[in-house]
Design goal:
30% of the residues lie in helices and 25% in strands. The chain has 428 residues and is an alpha/beta fold. The protein has a four-stranded mixed sheet with strand order 22-23-1-24. Strands 2-15-17-16 form a four-stranded mixed sheet, with helices on one face. It has a four-stranded mixed sheet with strand order 4-5-3-14, with helices on one face. Strand 16 (282-286) and strand 17 form a beta hairpin. Helix 8 packs parallel to helix 12. The radius of gyration is 21 Å and the shape is elongated. Bound molecules: ligand EPZ. Residues 23, 26, 101-102, 128, 130-135, 170, 172-175, 314-315, 337-338, 380-381, 408 line the site of ligand EPZ.
Length: 428
């Protein structure tokens, strides 16, 4: 298995292009199951999770063809045409679901279109137990009969789903997406209250509208969907990745560098921009993205709490912690979304950080510098926080389990080394 070797201490300067958001692309791909016409998605990132979703959809009878340039300057593999003609197989097998929890996003659309879906129950994962009970309860409210059998969710709605008022007891991104897709083909009106407002949910809703769905309240916490008989094909460009954007913004800040992030959108990342600005990072809009620099003196500690959008994203918590580890003063970082998302803490401490965890909060006391070490992490964002720490650390940092990074960051080492980082992939 490959590892990543970083020799830290080089300020990053240059330009990085931000790709399409993984967490928007995955539900968008699943939405192809809602129609027998082609759904064409552009600006897809090249990531392991995208390939896993493509494989799962193929298993479910979706024809997946890759196009080259769709007029938007994309190149081979960035544009997928997904056509769900043959819906005879409605089982999402354990082998694929266990690789990627987002596989559960096929449940809502498949059930709505065919009246049946059998999807392996995703297990717990490194960041928490992550049940899907809220997805299932809400689908039951739409009239589905759901049984859990031999590790599988067996959902049926032979006479179709029926609109209902679903009030989510807590905000769930995947739950909102599954229900949004299912409700487009349910009869009558569905209201989703306490819905997730993440930009990736709004991106999905916009694509569904382009496919013929009727949705009101996009971007708000209450969406009203008028069910239609069928949806049709559409073409949609995936929204830029706000987490990739935030991660490279921190790469600029932590190295005392100056990066232009092409395609980045500040309006998708206001909470992150606010925290970075209060820490002393300079962020300005450019014609086609954002410029992020830290040239004026040291970073200052800042407090933050992860929350559903528009709050500070849990997917940026590990990266901001790496930054706060080398800021002046103390910061308190509280994680409210997942119960076990501090696995990067012991690894950052091995690199010289001073971090204490008390329940859901971590107290980070900034140190003058980190030192390189051999480290590993058990999830995507924790792994990238170690890359960020390695970029500023003295000496060599060797990061194991690179496959986590490949799930969510496209050509990470190429993008960073093009801006002056000393980073490379090495075989074990
Ligand atoms: C999405 O996961 C993202 N994944 C995650 O991205 C992200 O961390 C998360 O939203 C929160 O923003 C994708 O979009 C593919 P949730 P999701 O349902 O939908 C609990 C990354 O690094 N919950 O909003 O699975 C759950 O356990 C990742 O890219 C239930 O209890 O998250 C969690 O504590 C990882 N029952 C909280 O809600 C349910 O039925 C929020 O989860 C559903 C969720």
């Amino acid at each position: 298995m490959d590892r990543i070797l970083i020799r830290g201490g080089k300020p990053l300067r240059g330009t990085i292009t931000i790709g399409g958001a993984k967490n928007a692309a995955l539900p968008l791909m699943a939405a192809s199951l809602l129609t027998d016409e082609a759904l064409t998605l552009s600006n897809l990132p090249h990531l392991a999770d995208i390939s896993t979703m493509a494989k799962l959809l193929q298993e479910l009878g979706v024809e997946v063809s890759m196009d080259g340039d769709a007029g938007g300057g994309g190149h081979i593999g960035r544009v997928f045409r997904l056509t769900a003609n043959d819906t005879s197989n409605t089982t999402a097998p354990y082998d694929l679901v266990r690789k990627m929890r987002a596989s559960v996003l096929v449940l809502g659309p498949m059930l709505a279109r065919t009246g049946h879906a059998r999807v392996s129950l995703p297990g717990g994962c490194a960041i928490g137990t992550r049940p899907v009970d809220l997805h299932l309860k809400a689908l039951e409210q739409l009239g589905a009969t759901i049984k859990l059998n031999e590790g599988y969710i067996d959902a049926r709605a032979e006479n179709g789903l029926k609109g209902a008022h679903v009030v989510f007891p807590m905000v769930t991104v995947g739950g909102t997406e599954n229900l949004l897709m299912a409700a487009t083909l349910a009869s009558g009106e569905t209201v989703l209250s306490n819905a997730a407002r993440e930009p990736e949910v709004a991106d999905l809703a916009k694509c569904l509208v382009a496919m013929g769905a009727i949705i009101d309240g996009i971007g708000s916490d209450t969406m009203t969907i008028q069910g239609v008989e069928s949806l049709h094909g559409a073409t949609h460009a995936v929204v830029p990745d706000r987490i990739e954007t935030g991660t490279y913004a921190i790469a600029a800040a932590i190295t005392g560098g100056d990066l232009t992030l092409v395609g980045a959108r500040a309006d998708l990342s206001e909470s992150v921009v606010r925290v970075l600005t209060s820490a002393g990072v300079e962020i300005s809009k450019t014609g086609n993205g954002l410029r992020v620099a830290r040239t004026n003196g040291p970073l200052k500690g800042a407090d933050m709490m992860t929350e559903p959008y528009p709050g500070f994203p849990t997917d940026m918590q590990a990266q901001i912690m790496a930054l706060m580890a080398v800021a002046k003063g103390a910061s308190m970082i509280t994680e409210t979304i997942f119960e076990n998302r501090f696995m990067h803490v012991p690894e950052l401490c091995r690199m010289g950080a001073d971090i204490n965890v008390h329940g859901a909060s971590a107290i980070v006391r900034g140190v003058d510098g980190l030192s390189g070490a051999e480290v590993m992490a058990t999830d995507l964002r924790a792994s990238v926080s170690l890359v960020l720490a390695g970029l500023t650390a003295k000496g060599e940092t060797l990061i194991n389990r690179v496959y986590h990074l490949d799930r969510g960051y496209e050509r990470l080492e190429d993008k960073l080394s093009a801006c002056g980082a000393d980073i490379k992939r090495v075989p074990e």
